[in-house]
Amino acid sequence: MLGGVRPPIASLVVLLLMVAALTVIGLDGIPTSGVPQAVLNGEQQIAADTALSIRSSIDAEASAVRRTADAYPATSTSTPTTTLKALTAARKAALGGALLDRRTGKLLAAGGRTVPLTGVDIARTASGPDTIPPRLVTSGGTRQLLYFAKVTLPAQDDPDQDQAPSRADRQLLLVVSEALPALTAYGEGRTAQVLDASGKALATAVRGTASETAAHSGLSAAAARAANGSRAGTGASGTLLGTTTGSRRTVAGWAQVASATGSGATDDLGLVVLTSRAAPATTTAADYSRFALKTAGTLAMVALWLGLALYFLVQQPLLRLYLSAGRLARGVTGAGPTERAELSRPVPVHGFGELARIGRALESLRGQLLGESGPQQFPARRAPGYRALAVVGVVAVACWALPMIFLLNRADAATAVPAPVLADQQARTEIATQRIRQSLDQSYTDLSEAAASLPGRSRAAQTEVLRQSLADHKQYRSLYLLNRSGGTTLRVGDTPLRTLVHVPGGGGITTVNTSGRIPAIAAYAQVRPGKGQAPAAGVVLFGEIDVKALNSLLPRPKLGNVWVTDADEKVLAASVGYRAFQSLPDPGLTRLARATQGAPGTTGTATSAVHNTSSGPSVDAAAPLAQSGPTARLGWHVVTAEPAAALQIPAVQAQQRTMLAGILGLAVSALCLGWLYVVVIRPLRAVAVLVERLAGGDRRTVLHPVNHDEIGSVTRSLELVRQVLAERDRAARSGRAAGPFRPPRENTHQR
Fold first, then answer.
1. DSSP alpha helix (H) spans, 29-145
2. Domain spans of the chain?
3. Where residue 211 falls among pLDDT bands split at 50, 70, 90?
4. What is residue 201's DSSP assignment?
5. 251, 42 Cβ separation under 8 angstroms
């Protein structure tokens, strides 16, 4: 099916013309006016990142409420009032709390603001699974979140009951009301909102000066409709375009506050995050259509020239040679006068190179069959053949393709990336920094709670507390206590990678090692016994944080590679494979990380830049990890790098599609001409050598046809000629009469 001379030549022409057409379609289809698609995508991802932060905060708070309820040391003297006070005392964000009977829904204790329970089916909620998702309710015209946890108190006598008390444990339901998590807008001039299912803004944050609010432009209602139109609980997101003011247009992104990977605690809340900002719209469109037509027309002319050259220099001469060889074979094998007359017709020599050599050798063989000449030797030096023609064809296409790949439509790193895209990368880096900081802060908070519960307990009870804490917090790989001399007195989980020799004071996050294969990052908190309590087995509780858990927080769509570095710009965690404590992969990233440090004693600021790398422009950003809290003294940074080629930037798209057209053209020409070389040129070279040997007197080498195509037919014809000549030579050596075969006279044949 792939043999013969016609398929590769036809395929070469057709495929090159297709590449020319794709060049026109690809370059002409680049949108170069209005708001770039990269800006729309960036706003969508910022909304999705903000929604993820809110969802993580709600999930963490719901888990904390349940964990506090599970860890409450209830006794037979615990009352609903004392239990509620103990469970909500440490919850600074709690607006109010309530304890209800899980079976009847009766209110047993309340504290703080009145918890709005209207519309909440307590019995049905309590009878469900232990993990109860939060609810969004309205109280006093404001929206609040209700968090639930099941509490079990030991049975006790109820003096208000006349009948004998029941000795069954009391099953209670804890309800804590809190405001929505704090909302932060990232990026100058950006507005962020949390909407309910109807599009009402529940929280709004503005950074800098926003030109127009999303509510005034009608984007809030449009975002709510788009979110409601998506399947609930899928983490869907999208973009919207607002009004145009001068040369700027409002760009908005929306995202559901829901899990995209499965059922989550926030899926039924119906919350939507909407972010918006005014972005400059491109008014002067770059015209790539004229360039596309010129380059496509040039390639089409090259394709037609190659097709005609191969048709007249290879295909037609080969077909004529095929007919001549067939006539010669019929002349030596046929018994009738018509077949023998074929030998009287000279073999025409067509083309050049191998075909010309075969034609001349066939003519010599015809003379030998007629007895007009003997074996003929051919010169060893050959003129350039069809292999050189194939190389010329590849070079001709390469002259078109190489400028497309390396020279034309090159994106300038300084001007190709629009300023809003660079600002969005910086904003997303700040959001990633907040997400990592929240995770580390939560790790420290959880460890502090565990440390506060250790004094006054037996060693076995302390071990059980640490085991339960390790099971509840997947970010830890081990928990251990150190004494004043730095010795480990109690440990659960894996063996620590490394421990500190000098026990630190206070609490926070620290790196235990500065070299090695795996960074040892740990949260630590002092274990201080209360008044009248026995001291714990150690003085400092450490929780070694699994770097894999930290790495899992870093990847985000269209954010590129993400690294967490220490104060010396050495990598501690990354979204891609890395070696611990190695330098950042590009010096520009290191300079960017250092630029975030700011003046001594300050927290530093986020920054961004476009760097020109070996693979093209890269949109990079860096931000200090913490401005306050347990991670503030670390001096860590978060650095991101997204290749501009992964963003839908018109200048970069033009470069990519121009390069792709050049690569396709070069690949197609190399493939088809290589195909022609394998099925035509290489067999022709082999046949040319064999037929010249045959014409030179070699009657022993058998000519085996390899392919069932024109060259195979020529080879079979030559093998028949070889057999006739070999039989004639054997007859001459044995003394038999074997005169030269002569065709009959033309007039005799006519009669």
1. 37-71, 80-88, 122-126
2. 58-158+166-280, 294-405+673-750, 419-648
3. low
4. E
5. no
